[in-house]
Amino acid sequence: MSGGRPPGTGSVSRSAEGPIRDLLRQRDGIPLYLKLASLFREKIRRGQWPAQTQLPTLPVLCDEYGIARETVRQALGVLRSEGLIDSTRGLGTFVSAQAEQIEPRAPAYDPLTLGSQVRIEILARVPCEALPDLGRDLTGMETPLLHVRKRHHTGTQPYSLVDLWLPQRYFDMLPEGADETQVYSQLLRDHTGLTDLSGDQIITIVRADIATAHLLDVTLSEPVAHVVSRLFDPEGRPVMAHIVHIRSDVFAAERQFGNLATGDPGSWRPHMAQPAMPDP
Fold first, then answer.
1. Which pLDDT tens digit goes with each residue over 108-155?
2. pTM for this structure?
3. Between vectors from CA 96 to CA 92 and to CA 101, what angle results, nearest 5°?
4. Which of 26, 145, 150, 255 has its CA 20 to 30 A from that of 33?
């Protein structure tokens, strides 16, 4: 190996991928090059393509997956734009050194804390009077409201898109710019005098619409986690509500349970959405 590559680095394994071919060709509306890029990205994440090792050549990849040269080039272009691979003329394409820093997953979704690797981008703060229609009861929520739209990033990748509503009065109590580094549930707890806050949430999987797909950098109709949450004061009045869309390829949720033998099963068992009952 020449060109300054560290000793002991070589080409990655060229194992057969026969069963993968059928999965890549499934008609699911996702462009083939994005599915191939996802497959390659997972190989890097799992260490099957370690940092600073050489990728198979373009003809080898085309033959291995039965895919056209241009499609493979597009897939590699996605990884190159993410900084996961780099190419050197005359040497080939290598997994970049920074690929070692890839997190196995994005931080688990938590409505109260934010991982240190997550960056918040505020997209808009818009005053509004009407309660949002989230499919959840918000009776008693104080108005006027502030509608905040923000996007969370992990590393260089968009992680989640958040639409959040809270009373303007509470927002005015928060330190200026604090919502650029902390989540609102934490800010409400620490700066508004509200205590004993409780909440609920429903998590489903939906398909990304045009706006969500654009802001999360996913394809149209790609599955995303859809989280609807409410936060209540001790009197049971909603003090915050939000909808979060999270990329399904990085979504993880953590839960803690009490005593499963004596506790309320409804607090730890998954629930199916109940169909609407016909009018009698």
1. 555 556 666 788 999 999 999 999 999 999 999 999 999 999 999 887
2. 0.60
3. 165
4. 150
